[in-house]
Every structure is written in structure tokens, then in C-alpha cells.
Amino acid sequence: MIEFKNITLKVHRQTLLDGANLCIAKGEKVVVRGTSGCGKSSLLKCALGALPLAGGSVRLDGLELSAATVAEIRARIAFVGQEPVLGAESVREALQLPFTFKAHRGNAPTDEQILPLLERLHLSAAILEKPCKHISGGEKQRIAIARALLLNKTVFLADEVTSALDPASKAAVMEELFRPEITLLSVSHDPDWIGQCNRVVGIVNHQLTEENA
């Protein structure tokens, strides 16, 4: 589903990855870990085309990332970072925002679809009317996840998405993202998260190396 082939990634002239390879099958849950600054978050960003490769290629479901395909690849992937940008005034508007665009117009979710999902993510119905600037970082993470799930995304790139969550909220997020149909590439230092992943990959000497959990 996601393939990094012989990728070389440089940021500010610093080589983070050099001829690295990683292949993730559909439905796999993979976590990347390593020392600060080794390139974990940059790996996720290059999968979105947000960081250019110095060499190699990235493919999503057989489609190679390029200037011509980056929009289509981004439409298939959900990226959730530590501090998601919701891009709207209220939480309700943030959840509805993607459905104002041409690709999803006419498919806007109803409250009957939204409210059960919010409940599963330990969010109250009242949060829909709150301004996005007044909700916490952990709530923003869960709203971003809810928005992606409402779009029926099944490929997730998740960067430390449990960092701002209490144990109950973390368990709720993991229950949603570790469903069998979801392909998950993540960065995390959380032992609970790492323990649930199928594979653990470290960044060592600019390479992506399989590790034991």
C-alpha cells in the first residue's frame, strides 16, 4: 500500500535517509521510532509530497508520487500531526470543510453520522459549536481523526497523535485507527501504541531498519 524505494531525504543539507527502503502492506500498522531529529516526521511528510526527495521514489497503492499525482495521493491519505490545523472557525465547520470542495460535495455527513463517531472518540456533541481556537490540542487531534474517518480514509499517517491524550481518549483513538481495514504509518514514543503495531521500524545510520517491539 505504501512503498519507499531507495529514498534519499535531505533537510537543510542534512542527510536524514540515504537509499532507504520500506514496504507497508494494506492493513499493516507500522510505527517508526528513533532519536530526535533522525527523520521520523520527515518520512511522513515526504509520503505526502511535502518534502522533496533527493533520490528514490514513493508509491501509494501503486501510484508513484510526482508533481502530477501529488493531489490524488493527498486525497487518499489522512495526515494527523501533533497540532492539527482545522482550518475553520467552529468544530462543526471544520468537520464539514472537506465536503465543501468539489471532490466531496454532496456527501456531507449528517449529525446522525457525526455524533456516534464523536462519542466513540470521547468527544461530546457540544464541542460541535465550540470555536476551534478554544479547544485543546488533544481535542484537535481527535477532530482531525474524525474528519478523516468521515471521509472514509483508510490510509493514515499519524505523528505522535496520542501525545496530548488522557488514557481513556488514547484508547478510543487506538480503537479507531487500529481497525483491520486501516493502513497506518506512524511515529510514536508511546509504549502502548508501539505494542499494538505489527512492525516497529527504526532509523539507524540513515536507513529504515526493522526492530523488535
Automatic annotation (TrEMBL):
Top-level taxon: Bacteria
Record's keyword terms, sorted = ATP-binding, Nucleotide-binding
Residue intervals of the ABC transporter domain? 2-213
Instruction: Return the protein name.
Output: Putative iron export ATP-binding protein FetA
Q: Which GO terms describe its molecular function?
A: ATP binding; ATP hydrolysis activity; ATPase-coupled lipid transmembrane transporter activity
Q: Does the keyword Cytoplasm apply?
A: no
Presence of keyword Nucleotide-binding: yes
Q: Which SMART domains match?
A: AAA
Record InterPro entries: AAA+_ATPase, ABC_transporter-like_ATP-bd, ABC_transporter-like_CS, P-loop_NTPase, Type_1_exporter
Q: Which Pfam families match?
A: ABC_tran (PF00005)
Q: Which PANTHER family match?
A: ATP-BINDING CASSETTE SUB-FAMILY B, ATP-BINDING CASSETTE SUB-FAMILY B MEMBER 6
